[in-house]
Design a protein that fits this description.
The protein has 28 helices and 20 strands. The protein is mostly helical. Among the domains are: about 130 residues, no CATH class; about 180 residues, no CATH class. Helix 12 runs antiparallel to helix 13, helix 12 packs parallel to helix 15 and helix 25 runs antiparallel to helix 26.
Length: about 725
């Protein structure tokens, strides 16, 4: 017996002993303590989970994944495949046989078909294994799941697809790529790259591991965290039978009794019609199926029109993509059978790769459905397909591919991070708000005028919100009870009002405004500008950003002083939209709590339109343009334009032109394109209020009078003529 096999046997014996102790295994054939002269016979353990394993695909040694190489010459599982198609290969890769870890040194004889045996997952290395490196080179920490993820990660990635494009020096994405010569002078063709089978971990981790082809300039979902306890391989699959724990899916998903029923699952976070077929009730499996059909149509159209040769696909036959030069919908036939597709362009390769990624993980609809949706959508768009009826991104709270959840994924040096700092976790992670409420956190204004939250620490980034972000898991499905909310100004309010004793009343809307409150206020602005001359340029003056969607601050207006309120001026407080108490005055009254869209059909109850942009409640010409028929938003837009024009006049007079870009931090820029630097306290107040209006796109509904008040006041403070305006 060679040294490698001895080490493996020793490791297996140690593991079996550990398992027996942990699982209560019993030994048979053991001598009694009195029989000291009897020959010692090794104990034969009852192998725990043996029957479960024998029923699994891992034990099916007669199947293709373990018999594929029987007819090869030599008849062996090569080192490039042995890691996942034999137990010896996996142990070799781990270094559990005494060899170098991270590679397979020796091919495994094909007539020694093993399947995936106990020792592959239960050995001295996997006991302490905590990380796995994906084909993209990204290393993921995942504990016990790394045993599964070493094989179920695919064999290609965006990185390898890009590497092939670079190797062939492709500059025109739509040109058929010609062969190049290798070192031996032989032709090397630009061919399809196959992600391989059951790349579930790549789907699960999405944009973190780049298993799909991710297009430049696009952002992708990270790991699909689903719900606690069911966000890992062993959380959802029995580790020995490999079967999905369908009975546990039924805890949350109705009408789920079989594996096939999972195809019908669609969570409340999935509100768009991704595949554009008009059905928003079908399960995510069918949304993906619809997008696959759309993409295949574009692939075939592009192949015929741009690459010059028709293309067909066969999921069961290598190399999967075949030429269809005559356009009859079937693979062309050559002397050796179907003709593989050869007129690849780089653009076609990317789309075909993503199509294959979506198919080769049959559980993709559960593992990472939003990531797959994004890959299929982007591939369709890149080929020139019409995506106007398709959807890529979820409602904001669940849009894991957007910057509110992805902004912290990488450090400034480009290194993976995925940690959200403590000042942002409350509203930008799934766990932040529940933790904030549980720990009694609050919002405070510090002495230097900045706002912060207490009671929360930095957390791993999230893939959007989860059900448990708003619903209390210990009292499911109740929402968290929030009686009152402290705003950045230090003011405390409640959408539930107060009772007879003056105590705040809890209301679901308080959950919403716990985040939709902004991060600055009159108080923080005054604290930062205290003692400074209003019209003197000061390098220490910095722009303060109200932050995004501060709807709660707008709604409560002067009660919470979210915008900059000028001394000596009066401001309206909470906007009680309708006179009747509780009628369209709260977040949940006007917005769908999951899709977040305004309930525009409700507008028609009182207004003669379902278009909020057309609504106005008086014939007062607030902006002085003579138009008293335009919606109130038109009045606000004119005043905002006038404010920015006055800011430009003031800025130029004080030594520096100013420009604004609402999509690029830090929003205000000088004539040189760099961050605006010649701030005066007076200008920064006006800039704060202008930004405020831009960052609450619903301000014209939330509290239009408050908004018009601070816009007119800002224009006046900068020296502008407000005689034609009517201040509410």
């Amino acid at each position: 017996m060679n040294i490698k096999k001895m080490l493996v046997l020793l490791g297996v014996m140690i593991v079996i002993a550990t398992v027996l102790v942990a699982c209560g295994g019993t030994a048979t054939n053991a001598p009694s303590p009195e029989a000291t002269d009897a020959p010692v016979t090794a104990p034969i353990p009852d192998m725990p989970y043996l029957a479960d394993w024998q029923s699994s695909g891992h034990a099916d040694v007669a199947s293709e994944p373990f018999r594929h190489w029987d007819g090869e010459e030599p008849a062996e599982v090569p080192t490039t495949c042995a890691k996942c198609h034999s137990s010896d290969g996996y142990l070799d890769f781990l270094g559990a046989d005494g060899s170098e870890a991270g590679k397979v040194d020796v091919a495994v004889a094909a007539d020694h078909a093993q399947g995936v045996q106990c020792a592959a997952c239960h050995n001295a290395v996997t006991i302490s294994k905590t990380t796995v490196v994906f084909p993209s080179g990204v290393e993921i920490a995942a504990g016990d799941d790394t045993r599964c993820m070493e094989c179920h990660q695919g064999r290609e990635s965006k990185v390898s697809v890009d590497a092939q494009i670079e190797k062939f020096a492709v500059t025109d994405m739509d040109a058929v790529v010609a062969p190049i010569k290798d070192d031996a002078g032989k032709d090397v063709r630009f061919g399809f790259r196959n992600v391989h089978y059951y790349a579930a971990a790549a789907t699960l981790y999405g944009g973190m591991t780049h298993g799909g082809y991710e297009y430049e300039g696009m952002t992708y979902d990270a790991k699909n965290t689903h719900v606690e306890g069911y966000d890992s391989c062993v959380g959802c699959h029995d580790p020995h039978t490999l079967e999905v724990k369908v009975d546990q899916c039924a805890f949350c998903h109705e009408d789920v009794a079989t594996l096939d029923d999972l195809k019908n699952v669609r969570m409340v976070s999935s509100t768009p019609d991704y595949d554009g077929d008009g059905n928003v009730e079908e399960g995510m499996y069918y949304e993906i199926e619809g997008l696959q059909t759309v993409l295949m149509t574009e692939i075939q159209k592009y192949a015929a029109d741009k690459a010059g040769t028709g293309i067909v696909y066969d999921a069961a036959a290598y190399p999967y993509w075949f030429a269809d030069a005559d356009g009859d919908g079937a693979a062309d036939q050559g002397t050796d059978g179907p003709v593989g597709y050869s007129t690849w362009t780089a653009r076609l390769l990317k789309a075909a790769y993503n199509y294959q990624v979506s198919l080769k993980d049959p559980g993709a609809f559960a593992h990472g459905n939003k990531y797959i949706v994004q890959l299929l959508f982007d591939s369709t768009a890149d080929l020139g397909g019409d995506t106007s009826t398709l959807a890529r991104t979820d409602a904001g709270h669940f849009a894991g591919d957007t910057m509110p959840f992805r902004d912290w994924d990488f450090t400034e040096e480009g290194e993976p991070n995925y940690i959200v700092p403590f000042g942002c976790v409350k509203c930008h992670t799934a766990q932040g708000l529940p933790t904030f409420l549980k720990d009694g956190g609050t919002t405070v204004v510090t002495p230097n005028g900045t706002t912060s939250t207490t009671g929360v620490q930095s957390m791993p980034s999230s893939n959007g919100f989860m059900c448990s972000t708003c619903h209390n898991e210990t009292a499911w499905p109740e929402r968290y009870t929030v009686a009152s909310v402290v705003f950045p100004s230090g003011k405390t309010v409640s959408l539930g009002g107060t009772d007879a004793d003056g105590k705040f009343i809890a209301d679901d809307g308080n959950l919403c405004i716990s985040c939709h409150m902004g991060r600055e206020s009159t108080a923080s602005m005054n604290a930062a500008l205290r003692g400074k001359d209003l019209d003197t340029v000061d390098p220490k003056v910095r722009f303060k950003n109200i932050h995004y969607f501060a709807a709660g601050a707008t709604l409560f207006g002067g009660d919470v002083q979210g915008a900059y309120q000028y001394e000596g001026k009066e401001y309206v407080g909470q906007n009680m939209h309708a006179d009747e108490a509780g009628k369209m005055n709260k977040c949940q009254d006007c917005h769908d709590v999951h899709a977040l869209e305004p309930k525009v059909e409700s507008c028609e109850t009182c207004h003669d339109t379902t278009d909020p942009l057309a609504v106005r409640e008086s014939d007062v010409d607030y902006d002085g343009d003579g138009d008293v028929t335009e919606g109130i938003k038109g009045e606000i837009d004119t005043l905002a334009e006038a404010l920015f024009a006055q800011m430009q006049v003031y800025a130029t007079a004080n030594g520096g032109d100013i420009a604004y870009d609402g999509h690029a931090y830090p929003y205000y820029f000088g004539a040189d394109g760099k961050s605006y630097a010649t701030w005066t306290p007076r200008l920064v107040k006006a800039a704060f209020n202008y930004q405020y209006v831009q960052k609450d796109p619903g301000a014209f509904v939330h509290n239009p009078k408050y908004v018009m008040q601070f816009l007119i006041d800002s224009i006046e403070d900068l020296g502008g003529n407000v005689s034609t305006y009517t201040r509410p």
